[in-house]
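User: Hey, my collaborator sent me this sequence without any context and asked if I could get a structure. I don't really work with proteins. Can you help?
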Amino acid sequence: MAKKKDIRITIVLECTSCDQGDNTRTLKGISRYTTQKNRRNTVNRVELKKFCCCCLKHTIHRELKK
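Assistant: No problem. I've predicted the 3D structure and written it out in structure-token form, which is a compact way to encode the shape of the chain:
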């Protein structure tokens, strides 16, 4: 049977180089990706190099807090 606590969770990755002057997380100029990670293998926050459509180049995207 399946466990109650899922091992794989859905996370949101956000661009670190986009302008984030405002505290609201719904700015139009911020690139975001959704992906999954294994909770057992990667305990720390994930950082991946992805394409940012606002910056028009590959930048580091970090996992957001939930």
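In plain terms: The radius of gyration is 14 Å. You can pass these tokens on to your collaborator as they are.
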